Amino acid sequence: MAKGKDVRVRVILECNSCVRNDINKESRGISRYITQKNRHNTPSRLELRKFCPHCYKHTIHGEIKK
């Protein structure tokens, strides 16, 4: 049985401030989280405020393409 488009999809959230600063010299990399979203309830890109261990603070993490 072939799987169609699922309602709940897996998304990757990436720190916006690490990406914008092109990984400044103090940070060691880019923070990424994996989560799920309901495609029907949130058709737009997901943005959550999560802790970034590279920036040492809570920042906005946005959805990226796989």
TrEMBL record:
<dbReference type="InterPro" id="IPR038584">
    <property type="entry name" value="Ribosomal_bL33_sf"/>
</dbReference>
<keyword id="KW-0150">Chloroplast</keyword>
<dbReference type="InterPro" id="IPR001705">
    <property type="entry name" value="Ribosomal_bL33"/>
</dbReference>
<dbReference type="GO" id="GO:0009507">
    <property type="term" value="C:chloroplast"/>
</dbReference>
<protein>
    <recommendedName>
        <fullName>Large ribosomal subunit protein bL33c</fullName>
    </recommendedName>
</protein>
<dbReference type="InterPro" id="IPR011332">
    <property type="entry name" value="Ribosomal_zn-bd"/>
</dbReference>
<keyword id="KW-0687">Ribonucleoprotein</keyword>
<dbReference type="GO" id="GO:1990904">
    <property type="term" value="C:ribonucleoprotein complex"/>
</dbReference>
<comment type="similarity">
    <text>Belongs to the bacterial ribosomal protein bL33 family.</text>
</comment>
<dbReference type="GO" id="GO:0005840">
    <property type="term" value="C:ribosome"/>
</dbReference>
<dbReference type="GO" id="GO:0006412">
    <property type="term" value="P:translation"/>
</dbReference>
<dbReference type="Pfam" id="PF00471">
    <property type="entry name" value="Ribosomal_L33"/>
</dbReference>
<keyword id="KW-0689">Ribosomal protein</keyword>
<dbReference type="InterPro" id="IPR018264">
    <property type="entry name" value="Ribosomal_bL33_CS"/>
</dbReference>
<keyword id="KW-0934">Plastid</keyword>
<dbReference type="GO" id="GO:0003735">
    <property type="term" value="F:structural constituent of ribosome"/>
</dbReference>
